[in-house]
Specification:
mainly beta; Jelly Rolls; eight-stranded antiparallel sheet; seven-stranded antiparallel sheet; 2 helices; 6% helix; disordered N terminus
């Protein structure tokens, strides 16, 4: 997984150097998609239709308009700056990250969908950073429903409503209210990673394998410790014939479901891909 955004030139140079040293090169890796909150397209904020970077479709941002006069409900999206948000840690690159807030006296929901121009194939790696400090109510009362924050990888490239977050989810990495560690939800039993929530954030990397499986890598950013979860199973739709072959990751969704006083921060989106063997 790559720390920050690296150019394809540097990766190719590393491959060439490795070959010159006698190691041989089976395949070259290049950056097929990338985006960051520091790019100029976000100078006026983060909005539906923004299509910065490369290799991704435009953002689709969903946050209901709450009109219940008896409730105080706030949900939305913004470009977070470390100079303003004192809790923003290493999810930021050059001091900026994508921020999502959802707080109030009810159950507030915010979801940011984005498609990949090309689906994530075997050997590709999707990486990004996630930061969330934990659940604290911002008001005297709050919803009793279980809150969660995280990222979902989806089989469908489309999304037209908040309700579609739960449809076609192949894999979810989440922080769930009442649990102090990151959780993995896929085709297998929910896995407690036993990695405590890092206030500086976590960098994740997802690499599809054959037969509907994937490898997940998590790096806690406060100490740069790497944790590997190899050979887990995507949650493919059993109704689809030959599902592992027909389905793959076509999109992802960032979600903050009633996160409360803490903002959710995301950044450093990247897809690395291998060229054909030399």
């Amino acid at each position: 997984m790559i720390k920050g955004l690296r150019s394809s030139k540097s990766i190719i140079q590393a491959s060439i150097l490795y070959a010159l040293l006698g190691g041989g090169v089976e395949a070259q890796t290049y950056i097929a998609a990338e985006d960051s909150a520091l790019y100029g397209a976000y100078s006026d904020g983060w909005q539906t239709g923004d299509a910065s970077g490369r290799g991704f479709g435009p953002w689709k941002l969903y946050a209901p308009e709450y009109v219940n006069a008896e409730e105080e409900q706030y949900a939305g999206f913004f470009i977070a700056e470390a100079s303003v948000e004192q809790d923003l840690g290493q999810a930021a690159l050059e001091g900026k990250a994508f921020g999502i807030f959802a707080n109030g006296t009810g159950f507030e929901e915010t979801i940011a969908f984005r498609s990949l121009n090309q689906p994530l194939n075997r050997g590709d790696t999707f990486s990004c950073r996630l930061e969330f400090d934990g659940f604290q109510s911002k008001f005297d009362r709050d919803s009793t429903r279980v809150s969660s924050v995280g990222i979902a990888f989806r089989a469908s490239p489309e999304a037209n409503s908040l309700g579609e977050l739960v449809e076609g989810r192949l894999l979810v990495l989440a922080v769930i209210e009442g649990l102090s560690t990151y959780q993995i939800l896929d085709a297998e039993t929910r896995l407690n990673t036993r990695i405590f929530i890092d206030p500086e954030g976590v960098e994740l990397g997802v690499t599809p394998r054959e037969d509907g499986r994937y490898d997940l890598q998590l790096i806690t950013l406060s100490d740069q410790v790497r944790h590997d979860f190899p050979g887990r199973s995507f949650n493919f739709d059993p109704k689809t014939d030959d599902a592992p072959v027909q389905q793959s990751i076509h999109s992802f969704a960032l979600f903050n479901l009633n996160g409360g006083a803490s903002n959710a921060y995301f950044g450093a989106f990247q897809v690395s891909r291998q060229e054909a063997e030399l």
